[in-house]
Amino acid sequence: MSYSFSERNDYAKTSTLAFNPYEYCNGTPVNNQGIESMELFQVVSAKISREKMANKRHLRKSNLSIGFFREAHKFLFSSIYGWAGDFIDEDDPVKESDQDGEKKHSAKKAQLRLTLWLISHANEKAIPANKLAASLATDFISLYRVHPFYDGNIRTLLVFFERFCEANGWKLDMDYMLSLLDKPQDGLSLKETLNAKNAHFLLEDIFKKAITIPASIAKASRPAIAGYMA
Q1: Nearest one of 113, 145, 128, 152 to 213, comparing CA atoms
Q2: pLDDT value at position 87?
Q3: pTM of the model
Q4: Max Cα–Cα distance, the chain, nearest Å
Q5: Which domains does the chain have, with CATH numbers?
Q6: Which of 17, 50, 186, 220 could form an S-S bond across to 126 if both were Cys, CB 3.0 to 4.6 Å?
């Protein structure tokens, strides 16, 4: 049975149990599909979002911005979550970290961190091609740690990061990156890799395999991010 947010909030007022408006009592995310089984939800959610990622041509072409970050999440998850595209609200009783140690930042913190990241790259100098993988690993980890959505952060980040690479003239092998969501990389999924102590080393190796640099910019690259918008 599915409950509205108001019904769940009414329950919270009379219950001594901790209440999370994003999850059913068994921990399954509240979803538009009405699925309460975590196992079934994970299968359905993965299938829907992967299909959307394979049809990104329907995602509006826009400049790299916080707005695009939200838009990418909404594109991927609008049929799964009623809050798709919305950062975690300031007033939602969401714990700061989940069981995997991931930081979940409120809307203001997430917007600030994303803004600072975008500004820092707006006029960045070109970097040697042999240092590109290491630089991308740093960028990916930095964006992952923003973690502004209650769920779907890695898949959204992959879409955003692909656009970031396109803006700089690099080709990101998305089929390879998507395969790492489930298929272990040195025994780790992409999520486990991001939370590993040696995450930067592992990601650098991943980007060495996933990034193609055109010959025209092979010596050094990273033009400014054009059209930055908050």
Answers
A1: 128
A2: 87
A3: 0.79
A4: 65
A5: 62-221 (1.10.3290.10)
A6: 220
